[in-house]
Amino acid sequence: MINIAVLGYGTVGSGVVEVCSMNKESINKKLGDKIFIKKILDVRDFPDEPLADRFTKNPDEVFLDPEISVVVETIGGIGIAYEYTKRALEAGKSVVTSNKELVATYGPELLAIAYSKKLSYLFEASVGGGIPIIRPLNKCLSANQVESIYGILNGTTNYILTRMKNEKISFETALREAQIHGYAEKIPTADIEGHDTCRKIAILASVASGEFIDYNQIYTEGISCVTDRDIVYADSLNNKIKLIAMAKKDRGNMIELRVAPAFIPVESPLAIADDVFNAILIEGNALGPAMFYGKGAGKMATASAVLADVIEAILHTHLTPHKVLWEQTNTIRVKKHENCAVKAFIRLLEGAESKDLLEKIKSCTDVTILPKQFEDEFAFLAGKTIPITEGALSDILEAFKRQEDPSKKSSFLSMIRLL
Amino acid sequence: MINIAVLGYGTVGSGVVEVCSMNKESINKKLGDKIFIKKILDVRDFPDEPLADRFTKNPDEVFLDPEISVVVETIGGIGIAYEYTKRALEAGKSVVTSNKELVATYGPELLAIAYSKKLSYLFEASVGGGIPIIRPLNKCLSANQVESIYGILNGTTNYILTRMKNEKISFETALREAQIHGYAEKIPTADIEGHDTCRKIAILASVASGEFIDYNQIYTEGISCVTDRDIVYADSLNNKIKLIAMAKKDRGNMIELRVAPAFIPVESPLAIADDVFNAILIEGNALGPAMFYGKGAGKMATASAVLADVIEAILHTHLTPHKVLWEQTNTIRVKKHENCAVKAFIRLLEGAESKDLLEKIKSCTDVTILPKQFEDEFAFLAGKTIPITEGALSDILEAFKRQEDPSKKSSFLSMIRLL
């Protein structure tokens, strides 16, 4: 019998208990042994839960129990979760988590402790919910050099953008709807502003490169600036607007990273990911393109990924662990955002000022004026063939915004990148 | 330094050598050691290849060399490949292969030998070329019960069906074109008639269920009967015709298996797989649906999957191996084809006989007559809501064909299943 403990009985933690019970037979068959959830650590009371007798508020009952060999951390955040993860590893227990924030923040340290103790620290569920992505990237693509990763990694924003497009509603209406359906939090900032997606692409890029990518280095924009008018333009170009996380090698040895809404052609495989679905398109130098698609969140899906890691940790107990996944590296390989090339859709109010801006952009790069969709404004694509950098484009747009009369409505309406 | 040998220097075998050289640095970093291809066994001469000095025609130079710890089998077929795989395992060497025929035929025996010797027998590249699918299914979905697998697993047939649809050409023309481009063999039977797909779904179903599914038990139809007129009808229903491999649990404990062309709605995620691309849609009871998509064949892609398995085999050397993947089972869990429910598109010549057949089918199940696409014929969908079995439908169609005048053109034109 293998004893495990679950830390934090929220959505994912309770899902782990539920999947463990639902698929007990097949899990035990796979394992050739029985999993027993010996302790569940949570500060709250759960007198009516099926495993009510296993709950404890005392962490020592987990960390000082030599019988517990694997600990599931589903507390979330980087406070107590960090402390408990370290304590578990130092007490000789493998740790499995769905906590992307912790992995993206303290991954190298926690992996190093696990490695030194010949333990596992596994986090398949931290990206893509139940979709297999970390292990395929780490194991199945190990003979490839990963050239690029493009991902739709956040279900909340994807649901909102899908509703905005299909129902022709505003961002605010779609967000309220998402909150009512439980797809968005009451304080939705982490999702809406791209922070969640940023941590996830940092993890994927770190797994792909074998070097730790600090998420603070990743340029991140959310979707709150996307309007229904932008979506009308996207539609007219047979494109969808998605919150796209990107990690891409440039021709040198640098990595371009970005989280931002983007126009993607409907023929792109990524475009099938609507509603709360996620999709991750990876290009390997030998493999070519491969895509992984599924529900990127959800209690049972995420819990099943956590439990698969538990099974893996158990099967690997007492085995020489693999090389540590992520080296802390001194070389700054993340390309500065301002030096990255950009292609963009730009929308402006009709008027003399806007014409000036258009001319300015035309003097730096190519411009394609789009068929007019609304009376009072115009839109164009910039940078499709003649490269322009994020820095150069941003300088032009910022200077334009600064010179405008702050008491009037700005002539600049939106800028959304093309994939 | 880790010494490996490659058996068979065909497309995949030479690809392994090429990828190993192309990505040497990143592979060695992942491994924390160096891979060295010590021997390449082939009966042919390759005096001009970069590793010309490593070729041998003498199998003893591989199997009796204690320094060689991993053997790559890319010979193909079930003759010498079987013999050499056994010899390698018995000599204490892990074996990695892309040989679906061998895995689908002798998988349980070879896995059992590997297990008893604490070695690996890995075959990620046997299904989906370079697309990660075996390991995700085996490892990442280990806490799920797999409810169904639907796959487009053969690039040749998918290329032909895509060209037939997009270019409005006949099967024969598309096949010739595929042969010219090297996507189809001169003798294309194994691909065209679904045999290749059949072995692949047998492997996937075996991995998913943990029990060996004999491919001989799988009902298999190819695509040679699909006509351009069928595709016109599919188009009119906003469907595509794809060669679909299916493995699905029924409500009892039985598995329905089938390889046959099928109508799939363009909104199905599978429908994005055109040309030589493959896609595999898996439904887990906790995960829900997840899809894996990419190039299902090709020298470099397949070779990169083989090499990823080599890395895995090396990292696992001297470790307690996992439980054997496939139990040889006595319980016949494959549901008899005639007992499986079917929904079908049926196309008939206009005429009194056809009306009789239509009435006969109407007396057993529901029928939807489709808008007429061609003057001399009509088509309908059967079984969409009232279940009819493959056996019952086949009995009606066979009786109809038997009663027809063999000197005349048959009134029965085609029957293609709906997904």
Briefly say what this structure is:
Two copies of one chain form a homodimer. Chain A has helices at residues 11-22, 24-31, 60-63, 80-90, 100-116, 134-140, 155-167, 171-180, 189-192, 195-209, 228-236, 299-315, 352-362, 390-403, and strands spanning 2-7, 35-41, 55-56, 68-73, 94-97, 121-122, 146-152, 219-220, 239-249, 255-265, 277-284, 288-295, 344-349, 367-369, 377-382, 412-418.
Structure notes:
- The structure is a homodimer of 419-residue chains.
- With 419 residues, chain A is of the alpha/beta class.
- Chain A has helices spanning 11-22, 24-31, 60-63, 80-90, 100-116, 134-140, 155-167, 171-180, 189-192, 195-209, 228-236, 299-315, 352-362, 390-403; strands at 2-7, 35-41, 55-56, 68-73, 94-97, 121-122, 146-152, 219-220, 239-249, 255-265, 277-284, 288-295, 344-349, 367-369, 377-382, 412-418.
- Chain A contains 14 helices and 16 strands.
- In chain A, the strands form two sheets. In chain A, strands 7, 8, 9, 10, 11, 12, 13, 14, 15 and 16 form a ten-stranded mixed sheet that branches. In chain A, strands 3-2-1-4-5-6 form a six-stranded parallel sheet, sandwiched between helices.
- In chain A, α4 (80-90) packs parallel to α5 (100-116) and α7 crosses α8 (171-180).
- The mean pLDDT of chain A is 94.
- The interface between A and B is large, with 56 and 57 residues.
- β12 (288-295) of chain A pairs antiparallel with β12 of chain B.
